[in-house]
Write a structure and sequence with these properties.
Layout: H1 2-12, E1 14-16, E2 22-23, E3 29-30, E4 32-34, H2 37-40, H3 43-57, E5 64-68, H4 73-85, E6 91-95, E7 108-110, E8 117-125, H5 129-140, E9 144-153, H6 158-163, E10 169-174, H7 175-187
Helix pairs in contact: 1-3, 1-7, 3-4
Length: about 190
């Protein structure tokens, strides 16, 4: 499944240039561009991501999975769906970018309760900033963050930064894996 996901990411979500032409959120220019949404929002991508992520979460004790909306949403939803199909349901939730200012003021949307053990996910990690924001907001709502998983680790320090906030951190696919496969595809 991972090989198929890497192939799909290379076809739909990954771009490379020998010159740093892609502007990142930080304003820095990069040789790589990763937009996971064409993959995470595709039916086959959801199947692959859901199953691979569920395998990572299966033994963490997490009862729910979520992250900062919008990038993390399809990743978390796919994992929740796969968990049900595998007979070990893990709920999904979303972390808002801005706090809800009406009704019950909160950061989290979903069926989660204070004290629940949760995993935070994201589609891409560069510096880890959005994943860290999701961890902090989940904790502010009383959730026990036990794990963080990113779909694509750009290998630019994000996972190391996230580890400062939660000890169990991993990536499913690395930039190096994408780049190696991208070069193979371009040669054929």
């Amino acid at each position: 499944m991972k090989r198929e996901l890497i192939d799909m990411l290379c076809r739909k979500s990954f771009q490379y240039s020998q010159q740093p032409i892609f502007k990142l959120v930080s304003g820095r220019m990069s040789h790589f561009y990763v937009n996971c949404k064409p993959t995470t929002l595709s039916p086959r991508g959801m199947v692959l991501i859901g199953n691979l992520l569920f395998e990572r979460l299966r033994d963490t004790g997490a009862s729910a999975v979520g992250g900062l909306t919008f990038g993390a949403d399809p990743v978390a939803f796919a994992a929740a769906f796969a968990s049900e199909l595998n007979g070990q349901p893990i709920k999904a939730f979303s972390v808002r970018k801005t706090q809800k200012d009406h009704g019950i003021v909160k950061w989290i949307e979903g069926d989660v309760q204070k004290g629940e053990r949760v995993a935070i996910v994201d589609d891409v990690a560069t510096t880890g900033g959005s994943t860290i924001a999701a961890i902090e907001r989940a904790r502010a709502e009383g959730l026990d963050v036990v794990s963080a998983v990113v779909l694509v680790d750009r290998q630019e320090g994000g996972l190391e930064n996230i580890r400062k906030h939660v000890s169990e951190v991993s990536g499913i696919v690395t930039r190096d894996e994408l780049l190696a496969r991208w070069h193979e595809i371009k040669k054929s």
